[in-house]
TrEMBL record, chains A, B:
UniProt catalytic activity: L-homoserine + acetyl-CoA = O-acetyl-L-homoserine + CoA
Name of the encoding gene: metXA
Protein name: Homoserine O-acetyltransferase
Record GO cellular component, one term: cytoplasm
UniProt entry tagged with the keyword Transport: no
Subunit structure: Homodimer.
Pathway assigned in UniProt: Amino-acid biosynthesis; L-methionine biosynthesis via de novo pathway; O-acetyl-L-homoserine from L-homoserine: step 1/1
Subcellular location(s) per record: Cytoplasm
A single GO molecular function term of this UniProt record: homoserine O-acetyltransferase activity
């Protein structure tokens, strides 16, 4: 698979026909100097009203994309049940924007993009923080004529991006609706991220990040995805769905193991294999690294005198916070700590779910109710 | 590093001078035919009494060894504070035996051992179950003249081995003291195990398992160890110890990341790197795979009509069960399920600890109290 194949694969995850592009020129980065020739790819639904007061920014998670909703596209969005005409984020009422994050592989400038010298960025792509992505999105808001978002909303890394928006540009965010996220990546989140990074970097196809003329390190990406996916689900959900069942036609307790890759699997292994294969078809390993490192850097208080001082400036922002009851990656207690540190503490809503972290994607009815409650 | 270097490194983990060996000849395996030329390496402390009624079998965990206690050796054992003269497992009173598990790399026959054809087993080493290791240990008990163990005791995989002893040979076990284990490996435990297996098998040095003439896949082993180690500790312990601190002299939020291995680290990453490096010096990756797959196969009820039917036969065994309060790999609820399935249900003791699963190694005072309570 070459770079062009990978890009095509990647772009299958979004409907290219719906993508808009904004050229940002040279972008100043928080700690990495400048990124020249940057652009953002984004999608929109609905119509901006005359005073530009009905704009909503929907922020995707680590491996998500701008394709939050279907729109004219044939392909359903990742928050299909929440974003659309008459839905919780009503595209007949709101002008909804979703940008592919800087550093990703769905059209915004990332490691697989062509640098000014005509070669893919690869290993030369700069370290990014979530603040860099928010700065880029602020330029998008400027270009669209949006002085203040009616709401910025997201879950997981999308929640961290929404929080960073509220702290970076409090005057530009009326509602911040944040699901399954926290104020700063924790030691455990960093630890799990490191294993995912190493899974990719230890793949011999990684070649230090300059693999675009050859096969990309998809085995490594697949392993990273498996590690991550376990953390996205709950123990009890995996137990209930899979237990110790063997994959159909396979014999995990048999003489056939020796020296082979796992061809005789338990059902939960087949499930993880499927998740790995699926992501490997649509995601660039370098983007996975770049965004994982950006998420590791997530810390609202960094360079701002700590969390409480950073949040002081958000007194004009209306926060709605929700945690998934069974989330073991972004613990409900971490959301409670964030809530308590706000200038006007709010109560954290609980999304009741057995699924774990991924509840921010699956529990759409509860999220719709939360959005309705937010006064949004 | 060649096979001989690796063996030497591995053997540094135990005091070779204390190792005894028992030749088992050809061993019949549960599902993989036979293992010819098998032997067990073991250590003992104390003296077997005249009626052989004071023998205690201490079972090590996944990467542990027979070196549970110091004895004459200069090197402390992994349960140093529990096994020794006057300690909870009193070697002045009991004859204590610890065997290196079949399939390991501390002297018992494993993948790095020389097969009958003069070459290392490597990829040809058979798939083993924990029942196979217990069968081998029963031959050791026979050879030592031990008809019935006064106690079999272990935590984590050592706990699974103790349980399998109680079910395989209920008439040969008086007390079974089981810590931080469960009746059958769960979907999540299997899922985490798969990621660790792939981490090793995707290392280019793995060579299908036949790497003994070359460098072993230690990067893969190190990654497997990191994934495992996160599951051995608790979120709160990692947060309290490391938080988001940078490793001294390193700048994880800096321009220096691009395309490099993680040289600019958070402190928790350095901690995981250390754990990975340490295991890579003393453990054979093929043994890690073999034992991980054996642990995945752990299921007391397999082929025995289910868990309750399997446990029926243990009515003469006195069980003492304990779970670590913060264990997220072997959940206290799983131990409670096991306890409830016993023919005479027992109450599960709680080892109160913030550390997580590794509490079975660190909370020695509570474990000593538990052993004392057991009437052992």
């Amino acid at each position: 698979m070459t770079i062009s194949d990978l890009s095509l694969e990647a772009l299958r995850g979004v409907d290219v026909s719906q993508l808009h592009y904004l050229e940002l020129g040279t972008l100043s980065l928080e700690v990495s100097g400048v990124l020249p020739g940057a652009s953002l790819a984004y999608e929109t639904w609905g119509t901006l009203n005359a005073d530009a007061s009905n704009a909503v920014l929907v922020q995707h998670a680590l491996t998500g994309s701008s394709h939050a909703a279907q729109g004219e596209s044939a392909q359903p969005g990742w928050w299909q049940e929440l974003v659309g005409p008459g839905k919780a984020v009503d595209t007949e009422k709101y002008f909804v924007v979703a940008a592919n994050i800087l550093g990703g592989c769905y059209g915004s400038t990332g490691p697989s993009s062509i640098a000014p010298d005509g070669e893919p960025w690869g290993s030369r792509f700069p370290f990014l923080t979530l603040r860099d992505s928010v700065q880029a999105e602020a330029r998008l808001a400027d270009a669209l004529g949006i002085t203040r978002w009616h709401a910025v909303i997201g879950g997981s890394m999308g929640g961290a991006r929404a929080l960073e928006w509220a702290v970076s540009f409090p005057e530009r965010v009326l509602h911040a609706i944040v699901l399954a996220a926290c104020a700063a990546s924790t030691a455990e989140q960093i630890a799990l991220a490191q294993t995912q990074i190493l899974a990719i970097q230890q793949d011999p196809r990684y070649q230090g990040g300059d693999y675009y003329q050859d096969d990309p390190p998809l085995n490594g990406l697949g392993l990273a995805r498996r590690i991550a996916h376990i953390s996205y689900r709950s123990e009890s959900e995996l137990a209930a769905r899979f237990g110790r069942q063997a994959q159909q036609g396979e014999l995990p307790v048999s003489a056939q193991r020796a020296g082979q890759l796992r061809l005789q699997r338990y059902q939960v292994e087949s499930y993880l294999d499927h998740k790995a294969a699926k992501l490997s078809q649509i995601f660039d390993p370098n983007s996975y690294l770049t965004l994982t490192e950006a998420l590791m850097s997530h810390d609202l208080g960094r360079g701002r005198g700590g969390l409480r001082a950073a949040l002081e400036r958000t007194s004009g922002v209306r926060f709605s916070l929700a945690a998934v009851s069974s989330d073991r990656l972004y613990l409900p207690s971490q959301m409670a700590e964030l809530a308590a540190a706000l200038p006007k503490p709010v109560q954290v809503h609980q999304i009741t779910s057995e699924i774990g972290h991924d509840g921010f994607l699956t529990e759409t009815a509860q999220i719709a109710a939360l959005i309705a409650q937010s006064g949004f």
